[in-house]
Write a structure and sequence with these properties.
This protein is α+β, with helices and mostly antiparallel strands and about 775 residues long. About 60% of the residues lie in helices and about 5% in strands. Among the domains are: about 135-220 and about 460-515, no CATH class; about 230-435, GTPase Activation - p120GAP, domain 1, CATH 1.10.506.10; about 680-775, no CATH class. It is elongated. The two termini are about 60 Å apart. About 35% of the residues are buried.
């Protein structure tokens, strides 16, 4: 902001940090003092006033500054625009891949009708570049411009909508909200409005959740929204900076096995012994319980040094994360701050541990740990990590999550062995989570930005027809609930004028619309000095400083006018005598401003405008050092842009795989439909309790030991992908229980990490059941 206000030009706008700090950084704070020495009320707004002034007069720019700083700033701005655009493309691709993942089980089993397969195929059409277009009606353009100005500038409407939509609708809304309405990830106004929307959503979530333990953990539209926010450019930059080296260093050790689950260690141990000796000792039976494995001395000897190594690696990760506190994007820290504030208000008696648990639920569960567990998906590594490093990364993520949570090891008893890591680092992590919250608010600067927005004539969105229509449809669908939640009178007027929401257009007909944003109820503010209760002295002084900085950045270095000590009158007079019309006008304006400052009593020519001259000189020094910061930020964001481009290539590759697979499945379906072959029933196949227990399919049994020999299971497949499992007791005609099971249900359980299938008398291991079914019930061309 400091640079924008001091050096306004087409190529010299401020490079806001990727952390979007709402406060301008300045080298010196000057104040006008009253006769009693107190600070004038208007001086606290000095620097924001300058930004405001320059925004008001952006259309008056007539000098193209071409110094080194301007050039590197333009490079940085262009790079940020590319990151924002590419992030949106990746989100759309990820949405398609997620949709196909949810349908792939049906495709595998060839249980889709051709009409359904054609619908899925439509998601895989070769996507041509979306062309630009316009609304056929200027009236529609203005009506939608009014609607999206309202949605952008009053985030409460989107916040309410985010709480109402279903999981099936949230992705379409997030695409528009995160990457279009607030798509400029490095522009302070849009970022601050988006964070304001988050605050509203979180506040409602706290109000409607009775138990804090379930807050921010369930897979809801709100949690999906928070996860999506972390995947934007600033979050991606942080992950690359903080985690990439640590993860790459770990995965280089492909053979380093740090498994500590006693049952898995035991299985790996007897498998290795059998491979080495060709036989298995009698004292090492298969199919033992987890408790028996944990008590095995050999297993304990293997695990002990692994625990030490795991804690050492986890400490290294933790130290890196803590040391890079200041690299954390401002928006993510601000969300942590809101979680802390809302927790204190909602649960006044909550201890610090409770607050840290909730912050950790966002910061680790939603942000860091997914990248640690699946670094390939976040493009932090070049290839898929091998089995052992992949398992180690999962354990590291569990350790960090347990550290951030209130420690509980009920689900995985073997993790209790890592309790010393939690014990030694608990105070350390709590301090870090609290430190994350120590960032300033942005409400004053946002209020200023909102005023500026009303004075601008060029606010616009680049948005597709389908994004417009989807948002319109969702607002229309949930209008009744929105009316109950808050005052939406302005929104209702706009929706009534627009009429029914149009249907989605086919992909090939989708167009990008440049939608000018208009405020329907706020008239454009021409005199912002009056609107914001600031004085003409402020504006005049800051315009003078900004103008002289521009002139000095544009005049040749060899010009006598730029010699020190600076002579402001000489600088203005030199510019006013130049043939370049832009410089001529700026020179004349600079002379006028010096005269106005004298008349207002703000400055005098008797000391050569000393205060103004010193500030101009200091700002030039500040701009000189700023160039290095801009270059450094550009290098970081170059890496981020490369990462996002790599991720795009990865996603496109996944879609190509689906295309090939879908083509084969559809060909087989068409062949089967032509032949009209009748599906045959497979089975029943009989499996004893002992057999399934030995193969690990039964991972826990409630059947008494003396009755297990009489228990058996029949499994039948009446049609592809459908199974009937019945449990029988010898001598009884009817089964004890019967379960209908769909293969895609099992696949979904596996994808969600649900390893246990409860059959009342026994609990099956889902991955082992899948292996068994695929092996015994394989059909041709499944």
């Amino acid at each position: 902001m400091a640079l924008t206000m001091l050096a306004p030009s087409r190529t010299s706008t401020s490079s806001s940090s990727s952390n979007v700090n709402p406060y301008p950084q300045v080298t010196r704070q000057n104040t006008f003092s009253s006769s009693d020495g107190t600070r004038s009320a208007r001086t606290s707004k000095r620097y924001s006033v300058t930004a405001l002034y320059m925004s008001m007069h952006a259309h008056d720019k007539d000098i193209e500054i071409e110094d080194d700083l301007a050039r590197v700033q333009k490079t940085l701005r262009d790079l940020k625009a590319k990151i924002s655009s590419q992030s949106k493309k990746n989100f759309v691709l990820e949405k398609d891949v997620r949709y196909l993942d949810s349908r792939i089980a049906l495709l595998i089993q060839n249980r889709m009708a051709l009409e359904e397969q054609n619908e899925v195929a439509s998601h895989l059409e070769d996507s041509v570049e979306i062309l630009e277009g316009t609304f056929p009606s200027d009236q529609k353009t203005q009506q939608y411009g009014n609607l999206f100005f309202l949605l952008q500038s009053e985030p409460r409407h989107i916040a309410a909508l985010c709480r109402l939509v279903t999981m099936a609708e949230i992705d379409a809304l997030l695409q528009t909200v995160m990457f279009t309405i607030y798509g400029n990830q490095y522009e302070s106004r849009e970022e601050h409005l988006l964070l304001t929307m988050f605050q509203s959503v979180l506040s409602a979530q706290f109000d409607t959740t009775p138990e804090y333990s379930s807050l921010l953990r369930a897979n809801t539209p709100v949690s999906r929204m928070m996860t999506t926010y972390t995947r934007r450019g600033p979050g991606q930059s942080y992950l690359k900076t903080v985690l990439a080296d640590q993860i790459n260093s770990l995965i280089e050790h492909k053979d380093l096995n740090l498994e500590i689950n006693p049952l898995k260690v035991y299985e790996q141990m007897i498998k290795q012994i059998e491979e080495d000796t060709g036989t298995l000792p009698s004292n090492m039976p298969r199919g033992i319980s987890a408790e028996e494995a944990a008590e095995n001395p050999q297993v304990q000897a293997i695990i002990e040094p692994r625990l030490t190594m795991l804690m050492k690696i986890a400490n290294s990760f933790l130290t890196t994360i803590i040391d890079n506190l200041n690299e954390t994007p401002y928006g993510i820290r601000w969300i942590c701050k809101q979680i802390r504030s809302l927790t204190k208000r909602k649960y006044p008696d909550a201890k610090e541990q409770v607050i840290c648990t909730l912050i950790g639920g966002f910061f680790f569960l939603r942000f860091l740990n997914p990248a640690i567990v699946t670094p390939r998906s976040y493009m932090l590594v070049d290839g898929m990590p091998s089995e052992h490093p992949r398992r180690t990364l999962t354990l590291i993520a569990k350790m960090l999550q347990n550290l951030a949570n209130k420690p509980s090891y009920a689900k995985e008893p073997y993790m209790a062995s890592l309790a010393p890591f939690v014990h030694h680092n608990k105070a350390r992590i709590n301090k870090f989570l609290m430190d994350l919250c120590e960032v300033g608010d942005f409400y004053e600067s946002l209020e200023m930005d909102q005023y500026v927005a009303l004075s601008k004539k060029d606010l616009e969105l680049s948005i597709t027809l389908n994004e417009i229509y989807t948002t319109h449809q969702l607002l229309e669908k949930h209008a009744k609930e929105l009316n109950k939640a808050q005052d939406v009178s302005h929104l209702n007027v706009l929706l009534a004028e627009l009429g029914p929401a149009p249907a989605q257009v086919p992909r090939k007909e989708n167009r990008v619309i440049t939608l000018p944003l208009y405020s329907r109820w706020e008239s454009a503010i021409d005199d912002l000095t009056a609107a914001l209760d600031i004085t003409q002295e402020d504006v005049c002084y800051m315009e003078a400083k900004s103008t002289f900085v521009q002139l000095l950045r544009t005049l040749p270095a060899t010009s006598p006018a730029v010699r020190k000590p600076l002579n402001l009158t000489k600088i203005a007079d030199t510019a006013a005598k130049m043939r370049d019309m832009g410089m001529f006008r700026k020179g004349m304006r600079a002379l006028e401003l010096l005269e106005q400052l004298r008349d207002l009593g703000v400055a005098t020519d008797q000391d050569g405008y000393l205060l103004l001259r010193e500030e101009v000189e200091q700002e030039l020094v500040h701009l000189g050092s700023l160039k290095d910061k801009v270059v450094e930020e550009t290098k970081k964001l170059d890496e981020v842009y490369k990462t996002i481009r790599d991720h795009n290539t990865y996603l496109v590759g996944q879609l190509e795989t689906y295309k090939s697979y879908l083509h084969n499945v559809r060909s087989q379906s068409e062949g089967k439909q032509r032949k009209q072959q009748k599906q045959t029933v497979l089975g029943p196949y009989k499996f004893t309790h002992q057999q399934l227990e030995k193969e690990g399919v039964i991972q826990k049994s409630n059947v008494p030991d003396n009755r297990r020999a009489n228990i058996f299971f029949n499994i039948t497949s009446p049609m592809p992908g459908t199974f009937v499992i019945s449990l029988h007791y010898k001598g009884r005609n009817r089964g004890l229980l019967e379960l209908d099971l769909k293969l895609d249900d099992l696949l979904e359980m596996q994808q969600n990490g649900q390893d246990e299938l409860d059959l009342e008398y026994v609990q099956f291991n889902v991955p082992k059941v899948l292996t068994l079914l695929n092996k015994r019930f394989a059909r041709k061309k499944w």
